[in-house]
Write a structure and sequence with these properties.
Shape: globular
CATH topology of the largest domain: Four Helix Bundle (Hemerythrin (Met), subunit A)
Strand content: 5-15%
Strand order of the largest sheet: 4-3-5-6
CATH class of the largest domain: Mainly Alpha
CATH architecture of the largest domain: Up-down Bundle
CATH superfamily of the largest domain: dinb family like domain
Distance between the termini: 32 Å
Helix content: 40-55%
Order of helices and strands: HHHHHEEHHEEEHHE
Number of domains: 2
Number of helices: 9
Radius of gyration: 19 Å
Structural class: alpha+beta
Largest sheet: 4 strands, mixed
Length: 264
């Protein structure tokens, strides 16, 4: 029997807008306080420095206003859960753009311009407006969900690169990021034999096999949100997380190593 069709997750547009603005504000405040030495420090993203990582965050946030301006007539082609699997082919273009952005611009100016563009875009457009991006068109409401992934993942990257930085994670942004990456896993590996739990934000069923209907599922994976986000984006590996007891996995279909990362 084929797995039951999953009902698309619905995100509260007002909460998503507030979450994006809040997390961007958290990052901006932290970046403005960094020293030249800290900005030159390495990150876990290849040979990007903290300066380049910080510049990338403004690019990802400014993509909202750029995408609204670039969108012509048409309809939405992508859902939030599809988006994480679409970014890898554009990595080289993004890398080149970010290096130029970081080299040629003052970070404070980039953040001020990104904040102004984001606030203006959200004030002038409703959630049904179309946003163009490298991989297709999305509604503004859905595209903002993807911005929580950019902001939360790169907040974690900044915190890892700069000891003691401790940028806070907005709870609504963290929730949306966790859910979109969980839904992306279920999209990548459809099925109902394995239940993946990421309390308190998400539970999804995935992986082909016997369908579970009642009681305790035979295959269960459980972890906390930041560990899940690091697994889904390649910041840590499945074997590392299991060895460090950051993931509990029971059942013969509970090994997700071959399905991760979802977004790299």
């Amino acid at each position: 029997m084929p797995p039951a069709k999953r009902k698309p997750r619905v995100y509260n547009p007002g909460k998503t807008r507030a979450a994006v603005l809040a997390q961007f504000g958290n990052v901006r405040k932290a970046v403005e306080g960094l020293t030249s030495e800290q900005l030159g420090a390495p990150t876990r993203l290849g040979d990007w420095t903290v300066r380049e990582l910080a510049a990338h965050i403004t690019m990802a946030s400014s993509a909202v206003s750029r995408g609204l301006a670039a969108a012509g007539p048409g309809k939405a082609e992508l859902r939030p859960q599809d988006w994480p699997m679409t970014s890898a082919p554009h990595a080289e273009d993004i890398d080149a753009y970010v290096r130029g952005l970081a080299a040629d611009n003052d970070l404070a100016t980039l953040y001020a311009e990104a904040a102004q563009g984001l606030e203006r875009s959200l004030a002038e457009h409703d959630g049904d407006a179309l946003v163009a991006n490298r991989t297709g068109h999305m509604t503004l409401a859905d595209y903002l969900v993807t911005r929580t992934v950019e902001l939360i993942v790169h907040t974690d990257d900044l915190n890892a690169a700069v000891p003691g930085l401790d940028i806070p994670y907005d709870s609504q942004a963290l929730a949306a990021c966790t859910r979109i990456l969980a839904d992306a896993l279920a999209t990548k590996a459809p099925g109902a034999s394995t239940e993946v739990r990421i309390p308190p934000y998400a539970v999804v069923q995935c992986v082909e096999g016997p369908r579970h209907t009642r009681g305790t599922p035979p295959n269960v994976v459980e972890t906390e949100p930041l560990t899940w986000i690091r697994l889904a984006t390649g910041r840590t590996t499945w074997s590392e997380a299991v060895e460090d007891a950051l993931v509990s996995a029971s059942g013969e279909r509970a090994d997700l190593a071959e399905l991760l990362p979802i977004m790299a």
